[in-house]
Amino acid sequence: MRAILLSTLLVLASLSGCFGGDEIFPENPGIPGGLALACLRSSTFDSLVIEIDYEEGYEPDTNAVNTLKSRVTEVCEKPGGVIVEKTLVDFSHDGPWTSNDVRTISDEFRQGDAMEGDTLHWHFLYPAGKNQDSNVLGVAVDASTVAIFLDAVDEAEGFLGRPSAEEVEKSVTVHEAGHLLGLVNLVYISPIEHEDSEHRGHSSSSGSVMYWAIESQNVGNFITGDLPDEFDDDDKADLAGMADGSIEVDSQLWP
User: Fold this and answer.
1) What pLDDT, on the 0 to 100 scale, is given for residue 17?
2) CATH number of domain containing 127
3) Rounded mean pLDDT, 182-210
4) Confidence tier at 16 by pLDDT (50, 70, 90)
5) Cα(236)–Cα(139) distance, rounded to whole angstroms?
6) Quick check: 162 and 184 in contact, CB under 8 A?
7) DSSP letter at 30?
8) Taking the CA of residue 183 as centre, how many other CA atoms within 13 Å lie in the half-sphere pointing to its CB?
9) Has residue 63 been placed in a domain?
10) Dist CA 253 CA 31 (whole Å)
11) Are 152 and 136 in contact (CB under 8 A)?
């Protein structure tokens, strides 16, 4: 266990951008992708609950939440369903958010453990304020926890509303869910060359929701037209290979 914890902390320390690895956390919450197999397979966990806690004025867009549920349902084998539970909360947090802040607040507010009986729990936080890197729109901080910074999302809206803040929010939300599923190459090595060489954990394809630019406030400057909100064929091939065992997966909290 001590070796696993050390390995996890070292990996967290190596992540940047929309991954949260800036501080050491005393427990072993895993790395983004650390519950990928548990999500993709149904042998132990029949259902997935996505807990959404949001502060007043920061309720996530309904279309973004529905798209998140749809995309996860498409790739995860969950016969018991993917259930979304939303709660209005007061995080009582001042100043920029560090990844350790997100983990600590998540631990305080989440209703269910990441693995609880036959149910998995993801926790999405929608707080007031921004990440310590104000350009970051969303961050996956461990195997089950994400924060979406809507103040930064609003500022990412493009010229004349293209893309709109709602479109950006939808893409970022699915993008961070993709990191919880291990995309791209976070806990495996894809047989397909689609990881951007300069942006670890991100796709080189602008047609994928995992495209590297989607994490940044400058997303409107990099992508013209509609923002992607789906996993592309390469992403889906990776997820299918992980699920059926043809792609080796590491750093898992389960099994």
Assistant:
1) 56
2) 3.40.390.10
3) 97
4) very low
5) 21
6) no
7) -
8) 33
9) yes
10) 9
11) yes
Asked whether residue 250 is domain-assigned, the answer is: no
Please, where are the H alpha helices in the chain?
Answer: 2-14, 36-40, 62-75, 99-109, 150-155, 165-180, 219-222, 233-244
Distance of CA 63 to the CA centre of its chain: 17
- 199: pLDDT strictly greater than 80: yes
More confident: 216 or 254: 254
Domain count, the chain: 1
The pair of three-digit structure tokens given for residue 32, joined into one six-digit string = 């983004």
pTM higher than 0.85, yes or no? yes
- DSSP letter at 187 equals S
Is 251 contained in some domain? Answer: no
Domain extent at residue 169 = 2-244
250/34 Cα distance (integer angstroms)? 8
Per the domain annotation, does 230 fall within a domain?
A: yes
pLDDT at 4 over 50: no
What contacts 89, CB < 8 A, 6 or more positions away? 53, 54, 55, 109
Q: Does residue 8 have a pLDDT over 70?
A: no
5-26: string of b/e by CB count within 10 Å (b at 16+)? eeebbebbeebebbbbbbeebe
